[in-house]
Design a protein that fits this description.
mainly alpha
Amino acid sequence: MTDLRIFWETLLHAGRNLLPIIVVVAVFQWLVLQSVPEGLGSIVVGLAIVVVGVALFLQGLEMGIFPIGKSLSNAFARRGSLPLLLAFGFSFGFAAVIAEPALIAVAQQAEAISNGHIESLTLRLIIASSVGLVVALGVMRTVLGLPLHWFMIGGYLLVVTVTWFAPPEIVGLAYDSGGVTTNIVTVPLIAALGMGLAASISGRSVLADGFGLVALAVMVPMITVQAYGIYVFEILEVDLSASAAGFDAEAGAKEVRLGVGAILGDLLTTVRDVLPIIAAVLFFQLVVLRQRIPHARRVIVGFLLVVLGLYAFVLGLKLGLFPIGERMAEQLIARDNVVFLYLFAFAIGFATTMAEPALIAIGDQAEQAARGEIRASVIRMLVALGVAIGITIGVHRILAGDSIHHYVMGGYLLVILLTLIAPRYIIALAYDLGGVTTSEVTVPLVTALGIGLATQIEGRNVLIDGFGLIAFASIFPIVTVLAYATVADLAYRIRVRRAASDESTGEGVES
């Protein structure tokens, strides 16, 4: 009975996450476009399947994966073995990302647009390996107490350098790939690992040393995916201009297989996606620790729910969220008034981010770690504002037909500049906040919006111009949080100096 009640609460939770998108779309559909969307029935069914899929997925995580992950983290922390911690960090970083629903959705879109030249599984393996390596690196940073900002500054300088040489066909996808690696599965696992390590090591600050793993997991895939793009487009000399230009976004979104054989095939594919998590858990629990899995039956049920939830989620995307983004883009472009497009982009970014559960969780943890000096409500507002600004700027880039190189390079150079002048205590948190802003329902809609815009606007290439919105949603929350902290710190210093000056002036008068 308890599990049923928890599932019902999880179902309501997933529905609340989807509600801001529905409200924004409904307002624009009725008040601006004044029409009922075509295929409303299938869209509603798709949205309902998304909610059920997310609920099943989360329930499975809570029953099967999270308990084992926490017990393994505690066991390795008690052993105090750095090689074991590094191996554990890599394995769980890889396993969590390879099964990330938002990444699966983006990779499938990229494969469809590129006619299979950018392979979905290859892309996911590259990204998952990158995250595994960087989580291991982040674990070592926390254990050794190394400052995060030098890792981030050096890393983003490398990102910007690689971007300068990368072919335009891969840049938007690479930055989007970095933005979707930290989501429904990875954020809780990676954040818990970092904060748990910092709390268990003497002399470490949870705020300064516990955060940052999520930020590193966002950054490194940007480099490796661009390197993959250099291999595909420069070494293999694949030309996708014709196929990408002729890509039918709406047809791609409607490719839904519902036959019995097709469903079984898709379920087996989903099992393959989740298999790395199962393999990592079994290996570390049975081989390394040589312990039986506690509550094995409950864990097995949890893994089955993860598989079913992941399958339902992907199916619901194709029926519901992808068509919404594409049709809204088409209808708003037809209005021939870019103001409505900017308003829609801003509203979607702000509303969905304010309801993002990972952001709420990170904000609450930051408030506790800072002992009330950082307010979770202020963090959520700043991050939501950053996402809204970022998606709006990304939409403007597509409309203007500008190169994404200059936008992302300029954005990260601004981040690096703010990192140099911002107070040290906020840096790790700010970078992590840039990685938790895109939820499992926001990413597909934003991706579909970008692809829809690139499809509808003459002269745009879907592969070059369609991707990139998620990247902007990851960059600008870092900017808003760092800028706010810098201004607040400057204001505090000015108040302290004035108070000290007033005291010295008062003492001089009394004497």
